[in-house]
Amino acid sequence: MKIKVLIVDDSALIRSVMSEIINSQPDMEVVATAPDPLVARELIKQHNPDVLTLDVEMPKMDGLDFLEKLMRLRPMPVVMVSSLTERGSEITMRALELGAVDFVTKPKISIQAGMREYTDLISDKIRAAAKARVRARTLPTAGTAQGSVPLSALRNPLLSSEKLIIVGASTGGTEAIREFLMQMPSDCPGILITQHMPEGFTRSFAKRLDSLCKISVQEAQGNERVLPGHAYIAPGHSHLYLTRSGANYMTKIDQAEPVNRHRPSVDVLFRSAAQAAGKNAVGVILTGMGKDGAAGMLEMRNAGAYNFAQDEASCVVFGMPREAIAIGAAHEVGALTALPGMVLGYLAQHGMRALRV
Questions:
Q1: Distance between CA 216 and CA 5 in Å, rounded?
Q2: What gap in Å lies between CA 97 and CA 179, rounded to an integer?
Q3: Which key words tag this protein in UniProt (predicted)?
Q4: Which among 83, 170, 204, 265 is annotated as catalytic?
């Protein structure tokens, strides 16, 4: 059975091009298009689509307002269609917090030709969305992370600045990373993160996380010393690597060819952690479509790292964690709300000092 898609966009050109892209795929079809959310509301009732593509900025009702109402009254997989601008990226981050599964960006120039170049990307995101576990969410505020770190597990007086936490994610990962980082105490080990995300959005993502978390979160610039209490997110245009310079861990970024069709790639980060940190690294693989990160996490395990994978029930898309688990790369599997405590508990037992929460 084909994936039924409803396109909501005020641009007739975008509706036409998106329809052409989607209908060219053998496993999906556009059942209807709508120029605004008010029309879309009736079409949802009529066609019961599997996936909705939703423009961020539209007349009559803002895309975010519509999304919030939709996720509260009739949760369903939504892929946002966003402008590649600072305002567009900030709105898209809020849409993901409200429950959108993923997003694609409109090209800045030559929209018709540019959108056709995105055929594989758009199709993959719709397929992932169709498989996603959709949950209604509310916008987070600082200090409102779900769950709690088991403080009794974090009482080891031994000090070590060697330990690092290495995180990879894709579809659904922006919210998973937020939930994970919001439970990190201010003196946790340095954290390196690769999240599949286009250029221009990682900076807004990092800025948003920095405002919510106890730790400092920033988009990696390259050649930075990796410090405790800091998280470094791969920029959307480059791979992120962990390197070593004397006694210090450092970040490195470059625009080498995509790996597993991704740049940044989780495999690239994980492999660099295996080489630079070995047993001092703790790997975490979160929700995501595909298998990027599985092979790199296995290299981390073979180099002495200890690894965690998100479980199926708490994943938006159980792709990347499933692949890592299947090849024996993960030592432990846990729900998203439990993973911060599991990671910090392991670190407390292996050379980390008491962590202040």
A1: 39
A2: 11
A3: Chemotaxis, Cytoplasm, Hydrolase, Phosphoprotein
A4: 170
pLDDT digits (tens, 9 = 90+) for 172-201: 999 999 999 999 999 999 999 999 998 889
Return the beta strands (E) in 130-189 as ranges: 164-169
The average pLDDT across 109-117 equals 71
- Tokens 């709690």: give the residue: 148
DSSP annotation of 144 reads -
Backbone angles phi, psi at 345, to 5 degrees: -65, -40
Q: How many CA atoms lie within 13 A of 162 on its CB side?
A: 13
Distance CA 241, CA 221 (A): 11
Q: Of the listed 272, 292, 311, 314, which one is catalytic?
A: 292
Phi-psi region of 95 (alpha: psi -120 to 50; beta: other; left: phi over 0): alpha
Give catalytic status of residue 292 as yes or no. Answer: yes
Active site residue 196: yes
> Which of 196, 230, 239, 262 is flagged as catalytic?
196
Contact 169, 315 (CB under 8 A): no
Select from 327, 323, 319, 272 the least CA-distant residue to 300.
Answer: 272
Residue 151 is predicted with a pLDDT of 41
Q: 233-256, pLDDT tens digit by residue?
A: 999 999 999 999 998 999 999 999
Q: How many Å apart are CA 195 and CA 201, to the nearest integer?
A: 11
CB 20, CB 14: distance < 8 Å: no
**∠ at Cα 332 (324, 345), nearest 5°?**
135
Buried b (16+ CB within 10 A) or exposed e, 329-347: bbeebbebebbbbbbbbbb
Q: Which domains does the chain have, with CATH numbers?
A: 3-131 (3.40.50.2300), 151-349 (3.40.50.180)
- CA–CA dist 192, 190 (Å, integer): 7
pTM of the complete model = 0.90
